[in-house]
Amino acid sequence: MTERNLQIVLARRPTAAVTEEDFRIVEAPVPEPGESQFLVRNLYLSLDPYMRGRMSDAKSYAKPVELGGVMVGAAVGEVLASRHAKFKPGDKVEGAFGWQLYALSDGKGVRKIAGRGVPLSAYLGVIGMPGVTAYIGLLDIGQPKPGETVVVSAASGAVGGVVGQLAKIKGCRAVGIAGGPQKCRIVVEELGFDACVDYKAGRLAADLEGAVPKGVDVYFDNVSGEIADEVLRRMNPFSRIPFCGSISEYQRPEPRGLRNIRSLLVNRIKLQGFIVWDHLNGWPAALADLERWVAEGRIKYRETIAEGLRNAPAAFIGMLSGKNVGKQVVKLA
Amino acid sequence: MTERNLQIVLARRPTAAVTEEDFRIVEAPVPEPGESQFLVRNLYLSLDPYMRGRMSDAKSYAKPVELGGVMVGAAVGEVLASRHAKFKPGDKVEGAFGWQLYALSDGKGVRKIAGRGVPLSAYLGVIGMPGVTAYIGLLDIGQPKPGETVVVSAASGAVGGVVGQLAKIKGCRAVGIAGGPQKCRIVVEELGFDACVDYKAGRLAADLEGAVPKGVDVYFDNVSGEIADEVLRRMNPFSRIPFCGSISEYQRPEPRGLRNIRSLLVNRIKLQGFIVWDHLNGWPAALADLERWVAEGRIKYRETIAEGLRNAPAAFIGMLSGKNVGKQVVKLA
Questions:
Q1: Pick from B238, B271, B151: which is nearest to A261 by CA?
Q2: ∠A247-A251-A256 over CA atoms, to 5°?
Q3: Which of A24, A165, A200, B318 has the largest CB neighbor count within 10 A?
């Protein structure tokens, strides 16, 4: 093979905001599959907020990326060569193939994609980890009941957009919080939420109050910070907070945290942090539901697509500050 | 009857620290029981942190005390006169009789005290609401398993002291956090905790680390603030936080909140605010267990006793700043 592999590696650990200098692009030979391995040509790379955590060596649920190591991440690709019994050239696959053009795999954690008329990139978003995160966080942890009000922050993001649509499927009022009128328009008009509050408009408290006339029963928190504190003011007794992410904190050197914890007490709120990888038993059913609902048009999604591996760092940094709409992917080929 | 009733009423709503000027003492006639009522002479008045919440008119789970209204609170007393079928003169009773010498009751929420060799005041603490709070919060919400580590703040208080002793009964390591060497000595030597960290000693992080070599599986939070953030650093994956109170916030005009919420996420912590009055079905079993364990000497308790109704405001203010050890009561007769 005359092609060279391109890889993006972690050059240094960011202490606050991520910059392009935290990454380095390197060339390497395209590897040959060994016994029980196969070689994948990545077609789409997924960019997700959790990757910010892997750049840090603070204690976490997963090991950090090593300095000089290839950035972790899911990708969809095509099997080019295989010495693995269950994967053959031409198979479309999704797995943790990393920020690179070519990857070797032993098949662990890799799923084959049937691709029934759904674009391949969707298997990184709505029918992938973000979709399952929405599904398990909202349904298993949030336990929404028909007629209740579900609020989700980062509502136009890969997870948030699915949360609101699942809430609608379950008979709830779905209210999004997103940054800017364009995102809010998409959340309501394309994704079908009942309302969306633009937190950048400077009227968060008043607009949120208007959007949740019966208070909030489930707050799916992707952002934490000021937005979470404002939602806490509207939470109903015995409400639930699936705590999925705190993207507002990721770029700060010191955390701001939650101030309105009194609401957690007086409203007897259950706040539960969760990681979708703890719930592997729930993935197959979630993915089957999501794939069916996407194919039926009941769940819609948006993507922001960057072109070329070299643009992955800039796209990642943009996503952390909310520049994307929907799932952020990088088209590699 | 020639006696006069003395009552302590709410004179104004505190905005931050409570002061004696927020209360006023008034005289009133001793009331006569009407149809299906009885008259109680209060013997001991309970002082509890939740009362700070009732002085405020911020939205909460219970109505605030009205300006000019008698301060709410539990008391134990003796029935003096009765037109109620189930209570007769001489009965010892516990109920929400308020900060006053005499109270009328219709019997709702009042329990008769058998007093099997246990002092009457204990029915306001270890065999009362604080004991049940510890029992339900630790056992139902915290779900401790043998061999796990349970940490409780305000460990020498009425609730905290019971939490640690219940943790020991359940086969856990019990670690308290309390203010000052005297309280810590009582927590370990009298109440039988495995360790106690003095947060006033200026070495909270190091001392806590030494006290929880296997991390923290249940943190029973009575205080919130800096102490909770430090405990959050030591929480194990899938640990639980029964969130019972945030006494460190009660006296601040603006909340500090929780900063280390990242731990809630990466450790998949379940934090649940709870109010013991939501769990009335669990009270009889809890009180029966607690009464038996106290009688058997398996659960010990401390009290701080103020003398006379006129001293209740000062005792209450002292309790909010941690001057009491164990249950704070006021002896009225």
A1: B271
A2: 75
A3: A165
CB spacing of A275 vs B268 below 8 angstroms = yes
Domain at B129-277, CATH class:
alpha beta
Residues of B with CB under 8 A from a CB of A: 53, 58-61, 224, 229, 237, 243-246, 249, 254-262, 264-275, 278
- Counting Cβ atoms within 10 Å, is residue A331 exposed (0-12), middle (13-18) or buried (19+)? middle
The pTM for the full model equals 0.90
In this complex, which of B58, B256, B261 lies closest to A224 when CB atoms are compared?
B261
Amino acid identity of A292? Answer: R
List where CATH 3.90.180.10 sits in chain B. 4-124+302-331
Q: Which residue of B has its CA nearest to A267?
A: B61
Helices A204-211, A225-232: axis angle to 10 degrees equals 50
Return the amino acid letter for B270.
K
Backbone angles phi, psi at B276, to 5 degrees: -65, -25
Interface test with B, best of A136, A229, A248, A271 (most B CBs within 10 A): A271
- Cβ distance B259 to A257 less than 8 Å, yes or no, reads yes
**B274 vs A contacts (CB less than 8 Å):** 268
Where does chain A hold its CATH 3.40.50.720 domain(s)? 129-277
Query: How do the pLDDT tens digits run along chain A, 333 residues long?
Result: 458 999 999 999 998 899 999 999 999 999 999 999 999 999 999 999 999 999 999 888 889 999 999 999 999 999 999 999 999 999 999 999 999 999 999 999 999 998 677 899 999 999 999 999 999 999 999 999 999 999 999 999 999 999 999 999 999 999 999 999 999 999 999 999 999 999 999 999 999 999 999 999 999 999 999 999 999 999 999 999 999 998 888 777 788 999 999 999 999 999 999 999 999 999 999 999 999 999 999 999 999 999 999 999 999 999 998 898 899 999 998
Structure tokens at A320: 């952390």
Q: Do A266 and B255 touch (CB under 8 A)?
A: no
